[in-house]
Backbone:
């Protein structure tokens, strides 16, 4: 049983900071900052190391999304690094193969693989937001060295690697062994090497995006997908591009919160915050039954809208301005009954009123910040490994409403709201540490509750990282000395192996 007893203090520093779910990745980001790189450079270095050390949740086979705050211009920029479906993958093709809404594609089917967007996203992050002081090769060097000489597997990583190993061991996945040790998942403390991934990094560094989307690596991706019944081809890879986007935002009390617009689902959090402004959260008490009930109902309504409206805006118009309007959110919040669940959480009509992932972040000496997500979607994604390549809300409220520092906010017990796609029912999971009395009250209000969630199952609640500038969450912040407003405060989620480090 994984014990959960975090008592870490927040990291405080002034010149730069990095935070990830894996210490070696955090160290790589900090090393790039010390060499003169900026937050974007550090984020890509950390993404590369995490794809090596946590291949069950992230890697070059997945996508990435980036928010970059320029400390000089004070502007926020966005990059959507998600890949598109193959051109040949049509509804008619799926119907001919017997796949319809009532009989969807199985999770590991090769036709669920979209074009991997991470590699292009890394290159474009450096091109658009990087310091220009370090080459891509220098930024990827920490990951290359670790992949070649090996690194010891951390405890939580070993658990999740083992949990997803069966998909790598399946008979049809002939290259899955590249992410195993003698056919098995590596154990805690064992040294794991991935020279094939090191070579992939080298080709990306030498040839930039062409090194991934054309040539040897592209052919290996297409070969494994087509061998397993997929339709992706070389043109799908060659034509891939990241997309520069204008980030969406909402103002919640005294803070402005930014997210990438659709096709991503970041607007779910923004819609939820807009609804929460209509309630006195602090008065309810942290993790009380009223507090959890309210947030659960708000998230159900937000997810109902994002599930319905979020799509590729190049194909379908998304009513983004209307969805994020305070007027629409006020109307949606009026559907919430504080004494009983809403069993009819369906999408609204904003026009009528006038989603396994890793997250990591870095802040540099100029005050620029990079918020980065990199995902395979599910444990090892589809599990298909190309030959010779080696890759396969509540925290904000804790700080703003209840005055917690970054590490306290990450340590606090969480809840998770999930919708079963089969029947549309909602499940509310509560982490150990939430009281039994609150749990029983939520059950009485009609929630389908799973409590207590403990041990390694806590991964359900995500693995957050926080870096902030100045102690803005403190109620007496107006009395804080001006110098302390320049201090970086950081925390790292205790549900992972990682850490925050600053200098």
Residues:
């Amino acid at each position: 049983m994984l014990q959960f007893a975090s008592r870490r203090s927040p990291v405080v520093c002034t010149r730069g900071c990095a935070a990830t779910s894996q210490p070696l990745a955090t160290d790589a980001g900090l090393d790039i900052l010390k060499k003169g790189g900026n937050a974007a450079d550090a984020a890509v270095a950390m993404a590369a190391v995490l794809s090596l050390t946590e291949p069950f949740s992230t890697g070059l086979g997945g996508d990435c999304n980036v928010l970059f705050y320029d400390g000089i211009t004070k502007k926020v920029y966005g990059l959507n690094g998600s890949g598109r479906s193959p051109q040949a993958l049509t509804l008619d093709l799926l119907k001919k193969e017997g796949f319809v809404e009532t009989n969807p594609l199985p999770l590991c089917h090769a036709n669920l693989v979209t074009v991997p967007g991470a590699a292009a996203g890394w290159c474009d992050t450096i091109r658009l937001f990087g310091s220009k002081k370090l080459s891509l090769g220098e930024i990827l060097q920490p990951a290359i060295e670790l992949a070649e000489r090996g690194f010891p597997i951390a405890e939580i990583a070993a658990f999740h690697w083992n949990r997803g190993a069966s998909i790598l061991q399946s008979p049809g996945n002939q290259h899955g062994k590249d992410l195993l040790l003698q056919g098995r998942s590596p154990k805690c403390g064992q040294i794991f090497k991935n020279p094939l991934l090191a070579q992939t990094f080298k080709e990306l560094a030498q040839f930039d995006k062409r090194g991934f989307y054309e040539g040897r690596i592209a052919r290996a991706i297409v070969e494994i997908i087509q061998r397993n019944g997929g339709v992706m081809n070389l043109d799908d890879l060659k034509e891939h591009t990241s997309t520069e986007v204008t980030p969406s935002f909402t103002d919640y009390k005294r803070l402005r919160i930014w997210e990438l617009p659709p096709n991503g689902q970041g607007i779910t959090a923004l819609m939820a915050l807009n609804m929460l402004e209509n309630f006195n959260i602090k008065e309810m008490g942290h993790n009380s039954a009223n507090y959890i009930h309210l947030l659960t109902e708000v998230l159900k309504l937000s997810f109902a809208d994002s599930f319905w409206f979020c799509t590729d805006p190049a194909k379908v118009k998304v009513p983004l301005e209307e969805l994020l309007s305070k007027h629409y959110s006020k109307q949606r919040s009026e559907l919430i009954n504080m004494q009983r669940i809403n069993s009819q959480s369906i999408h609204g009509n904003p026009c009528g009123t006038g989603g396994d992932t890793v997250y990591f972040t870095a802040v540099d000496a100029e005050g620029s910040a990079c918020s980065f997500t990199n995902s395979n979607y599910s444990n090892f994604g589809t599990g298909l490994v190309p030959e010779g390549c080696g890759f396969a809300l509540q925290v904000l409220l804790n700080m703003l409403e209840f005055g917690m520092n970054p590490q306290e906010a990450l340590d606090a017990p969480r809840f998770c709201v999930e919708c079963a796609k089969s029947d549309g029912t909602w499940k509310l999971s509560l982490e150990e540490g939430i009281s039994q009395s609150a749990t029983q009250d939520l059950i009485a209000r009609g929630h389908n509750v799973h409590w207590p969630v403990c041990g390694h199952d806590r991964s359900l609640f995500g693995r957050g990282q926080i870096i902030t500038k100045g102690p803005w969450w403190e109620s007496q912040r107006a009395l804080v000395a001006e110098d302390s407003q320049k201090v970086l405060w950081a925390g790292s989620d205790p549900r992972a192996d990682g850490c925050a480090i600053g200098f």
Observations:
- The longest helix spans residues 289-309.
- Residues 13-244+357-393 form one domain.
